[in-house]
Automatic annotation (TrEMBL):
Organism of this sequence: Slackia heliotrinireducens (strain ATCC 29202 / DSM 20476 / NCTC 11029 / RHS 1)
Residues engaged in binding substrate: 105, 253-254
Described purpose of this protein according to its UniProt entry: Catalyzes the reduction of the glycolytic intermediate dihydroxyacetone phosphate (DHAP) to sn-glycerol 3-phosphate (G3P), the key precursor for phospholipid synthesis.
Protein's name in the database: Glycerol-3-phosphate dehydrogenase [NAD(P)+]
Pathway assigned in UniProt: Membrane lipid metabolism; glycerophospholipid metabolism
Amino acid sequence: MKVSVIGAGSWGTALANLLASQGNDVCMWARKPEVCESINTRHVNPRYLVNSTLDERLRASSDFAEVLKGTEAVVVVTPSSILRQTAEAIAPYITSVTPIVICSKGVEEGTGLLPVEIFEDVLGHLGRLAGLTGPNHAEEVIKALPSGTVIAAFRLKTAKFFQELFAAPYFRTYVSSDVIGAEICAAYKNVVAIAVGAAYGMGLGDNTASLIMTRGLAEMGRLVTACGGNSMTCMGLAGVGDLEVTCMSEHSRNRTFGYRLAKGTTLEEYKAETHMVVEGAVACRTLHTLASEHGVDLPIAQAVRAIVWEGATLQDVAVALLDRPLKAEF
Ligand SMILES: NC(=O)c1ccc[n+]([C@@H]2O[C@H](COP(=O)([O-])OP(=O)(O)OC[C@H]3O[C@@H](n4cnc5c(N)ncnc54)[C@H](O)[C@@H]3O)[C@@H](O)[C@H]2O)c1
Ligand SMILES: O=P(O)(O)OC[C@H](O)CO
């Protein structure tokens, strides 16, 4: 199948490589021509996953027309902050029924829209849209280490289309009809991972990490339910699965950023050092829009927001969280 992958960061590269290795005709869009040149000639992405040799059949271009010519499926893997501009950029080159799966994790600033909703807003035709999410660090998928993921779509046929497309011996794909739940979980777990990383950075222990993860999961469930999603999604790969891997894995940028934050590194310093997105740093702000709209209290997300964007100290925020009135667990 002719597949277009939009975005050549770590996750775009790992997914494009997976799809090419399964025999698809894959062309990946990268912003920088020198990245395309390296992928096409040396089969290496010079900026992300640099130690991996990519499938020789994988091609790259910085020209949307070339990448999307004759495409039968579009895989979007840009940072969530530019999803609207990505949808607008691909619009002239696709048909009104081209299936699109969005693999980015986040919520739009200002509107509170989820990735699939942003694409619906720009391109219409909700039925051909899907979201892919789960405990999937690119560093492990590129090595073909077994992983599982969820493909959520409002239309089962679309979810099954992408389930078949991505399925590989080491990549197990599940379908779900709960797009809202899956995409909220995806955005939310990144925020919790920053809090866990920060706790470790402050010298706190595994009990603290577990407390943050478990209460973070409770917050996630409240928001999913309030927004019309299925709380059971929080118990699956998109929810607790991804929460666990992002809070505990050495590969997680969100967790590492939280840790570094506690050691005095700012968001700008961390991003300049790694060239990588830290989606949770944005999501702690954008999720607030959704939560306020639905009257949901999110103390952990609010704490992360106060530290990252409002200059609060970790110490003060930790004390305030622990000082909250005592209550029933559920
Ligand atoms: N890395 C992972 O393991 C992983 C796994 C699952 C989901 N995701 C999600 O996938 C999305 C992409 O993450 P990633 O890890 O591939 O990112 P990354 O940090 O590895 O790379 C970011 C990519 O975005 C590009 N970029 C940045 N600003 C841009 C702009 N203004 N216009 C065009 N391109 C721009 C960069 O050149 C780079 O290719 C995120 O939403 C992330 O949460 C990542
Ligand atoms: O490295 P992180 O923290 O951005 O997490 C990446 C993926 O979302 C894990 O599933």
